[in-house]
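Late entry, written up from scratch paper. The run itself happened at the end of the previous shift, but nothing got recorded in the book at the time, so transcribing now.
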Amino acid sequence: MYYLYVDESGDPGLVGSPGGYFVLTGLVIHETRWKILLDDLIAFRRKLRTDFGLKLREEIHAAAFVQESKPLPGASKRTKLYILRQCLDWLASRTDIHILTVAVNKRNKPPTYKVFEYAWDTLIQRFENTLQYQNFPGSHADQRGMIIPDRTDVKKLTGLLRKMRRFNTIPSQQQYATYVPYRNIVLQNIIEDPFYKDSVNSLITQMVDVVAYFARQHYEPNSKIKKHGAKGFYARLQPVLNRHIGGVAPLYIKNL
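Output as recorded:
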């Protein structure tokens, strides 16, 4: 079993939205490596506590971490960005995870474009395809996956995943005697409804939040990110980025 932990950055609204991008990022880990990942992550967080005073019970939520004084009141923005960079470098050092990212440029979309649905549809399909072709670390035949998102639109996401198990149109990649533009290839490898996990209770989800935040900053960096030269932090993850999701090397972000 492979677990896909997912978090969002930005919002999916097309009208009155403060940002131009909606980003989804997922971290994939196999069940046999889950406990090892968690134990190593706890050790890493303890080191952050020793070095910077960041307690394990304090949530790392990247946007708030950069913009607000809590946690670590009195810490400079440069120090906080250094901590977030340490999080990215820790992930990049792993040999048992993959990172998948989908980015939607909302600025060029018509009013009828369903940002949330298309972004999630793409991420789910890439997860399904990578499972099917056994392209995750240590993968072998007949593997299954489960999606573990942070708080999001539960009704929409659950409904989308259920629909994709029954009706999932994929553009044809092959030439047929009779032209068929789409084929119905339903999900086979992702089980159950999404299992929702609030990031405040999940150290793994907090790390995914950091990745999603810097994926979006690659496209529309805020003033603090620009000032401290952190726009390119997402590229530090290059060793663990899933090369099967598409996108332009070395970022491998699927753009919609």
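The mean pLDDT is 92.
(Scratch paper discarded after transcription.)
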